[in-house]
Amino acid sequence: MLTRLYHHPVFREHLTPPGHPERPERIAAVEAAFEAEAFQNLDRAMAPEGSLEAIYRCHSFDYVQRIARTIPEEGLARIDGDTVVSPRSFTAALHGVGAACAGVDDVMSGAARNVFVAARPPGHHAERETAMGFCLFNQAAVAARHAQAVHGLERVAIVDWDVHHGNGTQDIFWADPSVLYVSTHQMPLYPGSGAKDEVGAGNIVNVPLREDDGTDEFRTAFRDAVLPALENFRPDLVIVSAGFDAHHRDPLGGLNLIEADFDWATGQLLDIAGRFSQHRLVSVLEGGYDLQGLSQSAAAHVKRLMVG
Q1: What is the mean pLDDT of the chain?
Q2: Do 276 and 234 contact (CB within 8 A), yes or no?
Q3: For strand 156-160 and strand 179-186, is the pairing parallel, antiparallel, or unpaired?
Q4: How many whole angstroms separate alpha carbon 34 and alpha carbon 166?
Q5: Which of 82, 58, 298 is closest to 191 using CA atoms?
Q6: Is 125 a catalytic residue?
Q7: 157 CB burial (10 A radius; 0-12, 13-18, 19+)
Q8: Is residue 76 classed as helix, strand or coil in its secondary structure?
Q9: CB within 10 Å: which end of the chain, N or C, has fewer?
Q10: For residues 237-272, b (16+ Cβ closer than 10 Å) or e, as one string?
Q11: Is the bond preceding 121 in cis, omega lying within 30 degrees of 0?
Q12: Is the entire prediction scored with pTM above 0.90?
């Protein structure tokens, strides 16, 4: 039983304008971190291209076609002020979905104990009908639906510790108690959602943090809200929306987490997965825009996954 990393060169081919925070160098920084000796036993696999059928479980046919029509033959095109696509963006997003679904297949078959998907663009802001916040397709959501549709799982939990609230994931599962969505995030901050009273069908647990909150507040939020929600839900699978922009160096957030916090939180989720999910955990990269903070935090996260 091992930890598997999904990667692919196409994730660097999703291009954005100069100065844009969601840039190809993010993937280069993550991959460079995994060149250290500590990761010599990390199993590495190429991300497969995902299917449209899998995407249609979370996004409508019309939405997917709108994204496809936006992709330019050359240069860049804007979906909104923040979300930009280039000729290879649709393909990159497909491989991100494919890797997330393959990760589910791996942990279900026992080919891997847990999986980290190093993909971009990120996904958790993508609502059923709206692309936003750098995101095209919601990989974590698609992976959850894949687990239910293909593997017959009844209860899937998505834990999101990105500094920004995953409005897209919340939108997709708002009325579906078979998927638990739990999010720690800074509030107020983009996209403006994520208040405690946004509870969906009782399956949405938002745990907003305040600007300048750090280790103590984050770990208290986990102990008091995130972990009890997971214990009550008893998930068959844990999916992590692993954004690392709550790191104190990140330019797009105001939280003060350090690498040790992501290590600790990963350990807590591994414990939940061990108790309820037969150790099955799939983690998907979301945000993280300071390259040093991103690489060090992703390394701490995956090192903990490898320890189990």
Answers
A1: 98
A2: yes
A3: parallel
A4: 26
A5: 82
A6: yes
A7: buried
A8: coil
A9: N
A10: bbbbbbbbbbbbbbebbbbbbbbebbbbbbebbbeb
A11: yes
A12: yes
Which two tokens mark 297?
């935090």
pLDDT tens for each residue of 238-267: 999 999 999 999 999 999 999 999 999 999
- Give the CA distances from residue 64 to residues 37, 52, 126, 275, in Å, rounded to whole numbers and listed in that order: 41, 8, 11, 37
- Would you give the DSSP letter of residue 48? P
What's the chain's length in residues? Answer: 308
φ/ψ (deg, to 5) at 159 = -110, 125
Two tokens, residue 192: 């403006």
Helix (H, G, I), strand (E, B) or coil at 303: helix
Best CA proximity match to 241, nearest among 288, 306, 289, 189: 288
The pLDDT of 166-195, averaged and rounded, is 98
Measure Cα distances from 46 to 9, 94, 150, 256 in Å.
9, 13, 21, 33
Asked, as a colleague might, if the bond just before 9 is cis with ω within 30 of 0, I would say: no
At a CB cut-off of 8 Å and minimum separation 6, what does 188 contact?
Answer: none
Other Cβ atoms less than 10 A from the Cβ of 142: the count is 28
Distance of CA 166 to the CA centre of its chain: 9
Instruction: Retrieve residue 48's tokens.
Output: 């497969």
Structure confidence by residue, pLDDT tens digits, 198-208: 999 999 999 99
Greatest distance between any 2 Cα atoms in the chain:
50
**CA-based nearest residue to 302, from 244, 253, 218, 215:** 244
Tens of pLDDT, residues 191-231: 999 999 999 999 999 999 999 999 999 999 999 999 999 99
Question: Which amino acid is located at 260 in the chain?
Answer: A
Residue 280: count other Cβ atoms within 10 Å of its Cβ.
27
The answer to whether 262 and 300 are in contact (CB under 8 A) is yes
DSSP category for residue 226: I
Q: Which residues make Cβ contacts (< 8 Å) with residue 217, sequence separation at least 6?
A: 209, 210
Cross-strand partners of 179: 156
Catalytic position from the list 7, 8, 95, 125: 125
